[in-house]
Write a structure and sequence with these properties.
Strand content: 15-25%
Number of domains: 3
Oligomer: single chain
Largest sheet: 7 strands, mixed
Structural class: alpha/beta
CATH class of the largest domain: Alpha Beta
Shape: globular
CATH superfamily of the largest domain: Aldehyde Dehydrogenase, Chain A, domain 1
CATH architecture of the largest domain: 3-Layer(aba) Sandwich
Length: 607
Amino acid sequence: MLYGMAEPVRRGILSETGRVRLYCPYGEMVPGMGYLVRRLLENTANESFLRLKFSDEADMEGLLQDPAQLLHPHPPLQPSGTVDGDFSNEPAADFTRPAAREAFPAAIAAVRSRAGEAVPLLINGRDVATAERIPSRNPNRPSELLGYVCQAGPDELQRAIAAASAAFPAWRDTPVAARAGCLRRTAALLREQIYEQSALQVLEIGKQWDQAHADVAEAIDFLEYYADGMLALSEPRRLGNLPGEVNHLVCEGRGVAAVISPWNFPLAIACGMVSAALVTGNTVVFKPSGLTGIIGRRLVDLFVAAGIPDGVLNFVPGRGSRIGDLLVDHPDIALIAFTGSMEVGLRIVERAAQVYPGQRQIKRVVAELGGKNAVIIDDDADLDEAVPQVLASAFGFQGQKCSACSRVIVLDRIYDRFVSRLVETARTWRLGPSESASHAMGAVADEAAQQKIMEYLKTGREEGNLLYESPLPEGEGYWVPIAIFGDIRPEHRLAREEIFGPVLSVMRADDFSQALQWANSGNFALTGGLFSRSPDNIARAGREFRVGNLYINRGITGAMVGRQPFGGSGLSGVGTKAGGPDYLLHFMDQRVVTENTMRRGFTPAIP
């Protein structure tokens, strides 16, 4: 029992048992007093049994009654001004429940039982096997072969684009309800297979259980959200109210969409771009990352099972160096949806701006690129909240998220306390194969990523002060350590360049103004965060911390479809936010049909 609290209870228990263990806070005065005040408030709250018994003299029979029997359900609060109707996000997995904990190992075993299969292309509804194939391996155990992914060349790419072009007119004119229904059926199938699809991510790209499950849940959200969104856009919108004139705004698909997806969110982002293109009436040529070709094909299989017509969705994995430019440059490609590095994204934007022989429309590009995301720790921040959230944002999925925290800018007054707690908490993170739920961090995606990150560790030792470097697991795997560097300045490479790994730079700012200046100083503007208890500083950050997604007093990763539409500005991307109410408009052309209803007389058909 807490020393000094509920003394009559302590004496009563002592008389019955002969022994009571007392505890009290130990350490600094302010946190200790804060702890005691919280306990005091709990014990004197209106609902506290201590207050009810000793102050209000409530009867014991009533106090011992099951609280669940006394509760009366309240109608759920409906937020005002929302634009998403009845949409709700797919729930996260609850691994405190035995069923969830048991389902994951079984799903991993099921995925392993099919290892070694060849994954073909899909062109015009038919599987196409090619001679060139690349192996897909487990990054935590590179000797473990998961399968071979057939690679498309120029001929296969041309056939896929031709099939998509031929299928476009009929798919564009398919009723929106039918297109949305295809997305909903795909979501239902994905929901049924959620553990197996998650297990595939654990093995093919090394995600932890919760990270993999969240990726599949996000894919389901995209399918449901974009189906809802397109249904809302399906009816022609009446414009103006001038008598004698009727104006309607209609939206329709543009043509063939090239979808080029990344490996770090291999199902969610791919599904989001593919489903947005399909539901808006475009046909798709889908090229996944070379590291996650099996996951990409499983997504396509779900759409096929849901009834997508032949030619509407074509699957062409291939080396970017061989078919990437051909896909972007092709005159029949109407739009390109890309998520990946800034370098590749800018190349796509540049090439898409050109008009090639036979091209009949200007290509449109929707691109989500990189980030160099900062979290500001105000001098009044709750460190119990800030430290674990910063670590999760920086090192979740090995820091391989465009939204990951790469810089933490700490005000001088709290710097030493924050760094001390940050390092001590980081020591508790266990590294090892992702298929084990006991490991907080696994291997990075491939050897190239491993080498790049290790080079940045050398740079960090030259530019700053190494505060912590975790030990590496034994055995094979593309392992890199957790690394935290202090004394990093805004001009350092570690503060400017995207690393895409578990490397965190800690920067000491004189005041809040300097912290904001440093946070805004880079070329990227994707995500950012603030931990503060100052209403003025929170409001100021909302105005001046100019990133696409700003999170206050929470982690900066894990944007939810419909709640936190995702995307940035600067060199972080082009286009409106994915998972938001305006995203689908990028995939469509708008037309206005105007009719004069004040006709005079009647003109019969002229023979």
